[in-house]
Write a structure and sequence with these properties.
It is built from 20 helices and 14 strands.
């Protein structure tokens, strides 16, 4: 049975009629199953293959593990549905990346904020750009129905009496971005983090205007007696997660690629994905399966190396889909570097070798990013950067700390003191940043093509469908 379909069942079907709202918290104490409602989006909760993922999911799972709960995640397909399920006491809490509003704070219990979001106005490049808040007047503006952004715009109507907007009743801001891209809306308001992450899929969209405020994000609980103890426990967990660095670690995992993204690079990559990747994807998937790799990672590395050109060759003599040196190709038993299958196999084998040779106490995803840096400049230079990081009081096991030190390998005051000497550290940083961006984009594209679907409305389908009489078999 496909458990991804199970989570999409409306929670209304699961309500126990005649039970009081705090009964669900008595059940939590009895059976330890924490029921959470969220929305299906790249920033909250989604499936990467058959693995649950997303910032909110990882934070929820960490909390459930720390408190000894079994986590059960349910999906709402609009914010209206999400808050209705919460209000009716069908779930213990909602964790959907939602900013605090005055309306919701009066209705629900809120945990301590764990993040902040900055709302931005986006538009399609080439159209009229709003440069100040007053420019939103008499424009077609859309927001996510039930989000804090309606309340935000409501607060601007005193200074902009002609400001209007439309609420789109969906659960995912990707829908808003799609409407603007398609010209079915002029402008949209969404959080900067969500936009930067999802802009990879819609590179023609641009953040036109930062609305200049910070909105705190919190989990919401039903406002019943049984919820107060859970809120206290969650607040203690969030405080510890902030202090220990766990919160920052999860945030870096899910939003870390957006700081280094290039809109033009994303636009070019998306076009190559559409026009060129279909030719090579079957081979990339086959080789990745042989080496137990995510094919999207191998596709991202091969794009960074050669833009999926099997005859690519650099001035330094590296060539092929994975741009192997002659020496490396020989060590990997690659006879013909221009043969795409041999090149991809050699590159995949090389990445796996690097992952194996790194110190065992470097955890994922830092291990992967360091292995890719070593693919570019070598393990010796990577180790030099890790030593520099440690000497400067940084953590040599964290990619962000090692990344900050790699450029020093080309500093004439520093590289003569290292074991392996000069290296193009800036190039290695850009190399890994680009691969992370391409990999993230391919993951988002997979999500967009395999999203959890709302449940079928049987009554609505019956009303629209012609009546067909089927004779019963005797």
């Amino acid at each position: 049975m496909d458990f991804r379909k199970i989570i999409a069942i409306p929670l209304l079907l699961l309500t126990l009629w005649g039970c009081s709202e705090d009964d669900i918290f008595k059940e939590l104490a009895a059976n330890g199953e924490l029921i959470v409602v969220t929305r299906n989006s790249p920033t909250t909760y989604y499936f990467d293959g058959d693995q649950a993922a997303g910032f909110e999911y990882d934070l929820l799972q960490a909390y459930a593990d720390s408190s000894g709960y079994t986590l059960r995640v349910e999906v709402a397909f609009t914010l209206e549905e999400l808050f209705r399920q919460l209000d009716q006491g069908q779930v213990h809490l909602s964790a959907a990346g939602m900013a605090i509003t005055s309306k919701q704070s009066q209705k629900f219990l809120l945990t301590d904020p764990y993040l902040e979001q900055s709302p931005v106005v986006i538009y399609k490049s080439g159209n009229s750009r709003p440069r100040r808040i007053a420019d939103l007047a008499q424009r077609d503006v859309i927001v996510l129905g039930g989000s804090s952004h309606s309340e935000l715009l409501e607060g601007l109507t005193d200074q902009i009496p002609t400001l209007t907007w439309r609420e789109v009743q969906v659960g995912d801001t990707l829908e808003l971005m799609h409407l603007v891209t398609q010209g079915r809306a002029e402008l949209a308001v969404l959080s900067a983090d969500e936009f930067r992450l999802q802009q990879q899929l819609y590179p023609r969209l641009v953040a036109a205007l930062d609305l200049g405020i910070k909105e705190p994000i919190a989990w919401h609980l039903p406002n019943v007696a049984g919820a107060s103890d859970l809120k206290i426990d969650i607040d203690q967990f969030l405080a510890q997660a902030r202090k220990s660095g766990l919160l920052a670690k999860i945030r870096e995992k899910h939003f870390g690629t957006t700081r280094f993204s290039s809109r033009m690079g994303a636009f070019t990559f998306n076009r190559r994905v559409e026009n060129l990747l279909p030719r090579w994807q079957p081979l990339i998937e086959t080789v990745a399966s042989e080496y137990q790799m995510d094919w999207r990672l191998l596709a991202a590395v091969s794009y960074q190396e050669s833009h999926w050109n099997p005859t690519a060759k650099s001035r330094t003599g590296v060539e092929g889909m994975m741009m192997l040196t002659r020496i490396t190709a020989k060590e990997l038993n690659v006879d013909n570097r221009k043969d795409p299958q041999q090149s991809l196999r050699g590159g995949a084998r090389f990445i796996k070798n690097l992952l194996r040779r790194l110190p065992a106490d470097i955890e994922q995803p830092h291990r992967l990013w360091m292995a890719l840096a070593a693919y570019n400049i070598g393990l010796g230079h990577l180790e030099d950067a890790r030593i520099i990081a440690e000497k400067n009081g940084l953590n040599p096991h964290l990619w962000s700390d090692v990344r900050s030190q790699l450029p020093k390998l080309q500093n004439p005051d520093i590289y003569p003191t290292t074991r392996f000497g000069f290296a193009r550290g800036n190039e290695a940083v850009t190399y890994v940043d680009n691969i992370r961006q391409y990999y993230s984009t391919l993951q988002l594209m997979s999500l967009a093509g395999d999203r959890i679907q709302p449940p079928i409305n049987v009554a609505e389908m019956a009303a629209k469908s012609p009546v067909i009489t089927v004779p019963l078999a005797l």
